[in-house]
Here is the input.
Amino acid sequence: MISTLLKPYSELIFPSVCSSCGFSLTSGRKSVCSWCLNEKFETAGFDDDLILPESVNFLFSLWRFDRGGVLQDLLHRLKYDHQRTIGIELGQALGNSLYHNLNTPGLFPEGAEPLLVPVPVHSSRIRKRGYNQSDAIAEGISQSCGWRVCDKNLIVRTRDTKTQTGLNAEERLVNLNGAFKIDISYLNEHDFPLIVDDVFTTGATTFTIAGLIGENGRDTGILTIART
Here is the structure.
């Protein structure tokens, strides 16, 4: 009760600022300001040049990755600095951006019901970080589009893997070999899985998950905040 009463005064003394640009947040924003969400970063959208696996219908990203830049720092804060709300707000922006492109021919199979599938992390990393950043992004997309998030038992990470950073495409695939397990019983007949991750680099992680789903006769899409 006291904290609620004091909140307006604390914000006058210690105003909430954007995790990206450092300016004061506008009403309704908790981590990233509207200007950064709409103007600061280079938009990406669909990748029509990338050769995707047969079972992957599309790759859609919100922004282009800026290695060593502000966006990389923002995603680092989401992943390692316990700023989960960044993921939710970025997910909302990703969902809004995709929603404006839903009329793209062949995007979803006829009668499909989009199902958000966050890339799972190992339980040891959940204990260390407190959450999975892809879960936060999927939550934001769900808030924007109204799509369901899958049951956590659909795709499970069975072993912890070393970081993919610094590995080439072949090494990434080897690193992920046997790292995921799928229980297809958690997919309904009309579910169209949309794999959600923070950054798309070589596609090793998302393609591995898409492959498991594809082995069960299901096509997928991939949604990420950034794409290198």
